[in-house]
Design brief:
- With 217 residues, this protein is an all-alpha fold.
- Helix content is 59%, strand content 3%.
- It has eight helices and two strands.
- It has a two-stranded parallel sheet.
- It is globular and about 50 Å long.
- It starts with 15 loop residues before the first helix and ends with a strand.
Length: 217
């Protein structure tokens, strides 16, 4: 049997390991955003037309591959700017809980959000953007606060709510050119991921852990 030394648990708020995990995650997420800007710059500079080629086109087989590619595409730099800060902020706290959980959770969010858009989105629309993933990360943090009884996850959600609460209405149907379906299914994907990849509490009989039109989002 093995015991973690005090201050070495990255899941325990206030420990050195916790703050170190937050720092590494923040740096990693800050590296993701320039990659998205590079994609957008190449798309616009070389006129590749990636949005219609790799975005989600609901109910069409030739638009199904957009489930995987659309989160990396945006309809212009303004669209990307609006997604960058919440992506970094939420992604940092999700990633800090573990890279493996982060990658698998992101994949689940992309699948549920993308397929939800493909099945329910407006025909002949093209859906691109990372906001489905952003809402998924929000769903993860909120659900982890419940299933893992982690108060600091609630604190992060509260902070994001204060900063971006007006965007939460994006999960409701609207006449604007915003994919509320991507937001809603992204949030649901985050809930599913948080439950499937939740960190289980220690076994009381032992001392080890088990881990188990163009529309843009």
């Amino acid at each position: 049997m093995s015991l973690q030394s005090e201050g070495s648990d990255p899941h325990q708020f206030g420990t050195e390991a916790f703050y170190a995990a937050i720092g590494r995650a923040f740096v990693a997420m800050c590296a993701v955003v320039p990659f998205l800007f590079l994609i957008e710059a190449v798309d616009q500079g070389l006129a590749f037309g990636l949005d219609p080629a790799a975005g989600i086109i609901p109910k069409r087989l030739d638009g199904l591959d957009g489930v995987f590619f659309s989160p990396f595409l945006h309809h212009g730099f303004d669209h990307l700017y609006s997604n960058s800060i919440p992506l970094i902020l939420l992604g940092t706290f999700v990633l800090a809980a573990g890279a493996r959980r982060f990658l698998w959770s992101t994949l689940i969010i992309i699948l549920i959000s993308g397929l939800g858009v493909w099945f329910t989105g407006a025909p002949n629309s093209i859906v691109v953007g990372a906001s489905g993933v952003i809402f998924g990360y929000l769903g993860i943090l909120l659900t982890r606060g419940i299933v893992e009884r982690s108060w600091w996850n609630f604190a992060v959600v509260l902070l994001v709510g204060l900063l971006y609460g007006w965007q939460l209405v994006g999960i409701l149907p609207t006449d604007e050119r915003i994919s509320w379906q991507g937001h809603l299914f992204g949030l649901l994907g985050g809930v599913v991921a948080a439950i499937v990849f939740r960190r289980r509490r220690p076994d009381l009989g032992g001392s080890h852990y088990s881990d188990s039109t163009r529309i843009f989002g």
